[in-house]
Specification:
Layout: H1 10-34, H2 38-53, H3 70-82, H4 87-98, E1 107-115, E2 118-121, E3 125-126, H5 127-137, E4 143-149, E5 155-161
Parallel strand pairs: 1-5
Antiparallel strand pairs: 1-2, 1-3, 4-5
């Protein structure tokens, strides 16, 4: 013997839901119609609007915004300077990048070879000269390897790796 269960069809569920919502809306309209004083209606409508406008206060959720590191910003500046479409654009990027440094004479060391943990450096230069070199050659092969900061959080020395 098999038992047959009567399951409601989706159409009958939709109709049932429509009736439930329809009757609940009618009750609200009837309550408004029963009020004889128009002042009461206006006050109730104003109160409902205020309730809608003022959301309930919820505890603030801390949103942590991850900012790019200074090393990443420097690499981005190097790329922007070397690929700048005009000299004015490159000079603008150079001025922005220099704000990250304690001064434009901050030393820049470029590692050209590393053997057994002992690096070999190219001739030392300054950040001002290096940024202008990038602008002139449009060649950016070096990446930031090490950054040394001063007490103010500005870069006082930079080590790059080719």
């Amino acid at each position: 013997m098999t038992k047959k269960y009567n399951t409601p069809s989706p159409l009958s569920l939709v109709i049932l839901l429509a009736l439930v919502f329809g009757f609940s809306a009618c009750k609200n309209k009837k309550q408004l119609a029963d009020m004889s004083d128009t002042q009461e209606i206006k006050e109730q409508m104003a109160q409902e609007e205020m309730e809608e406008e003022i959301p309930e206060e919820e505890p603030e959720e801390r949103v942590v915004k991850k900012e790019p590191s200074k090393e990443l910003k420097l690499n981005n500046y190097f790329s922007a300077i070397s690929s700048a479409s005009s000299t004015a654009s490159a000079n603008s990027s150079i001025q922005e990048a220099l704000t990250m440094f304690s001064n434009s004479e901050a030393p820049v060391l470029i590692v050209i070879y590393k053997e057994g943990g002992k690096p070999s450096y190219d001739e030392p230069t300054t950040i001002g000269k290096y940024l202008n070199y990038l602008k002139d050659t449009k060649n950016n092969k070096a990446r930031v390897e090490e950054v040394i900061y001063d007490a103010n959080g500005k870069i006082k020395e930079l080590v790059l790796r080719k």
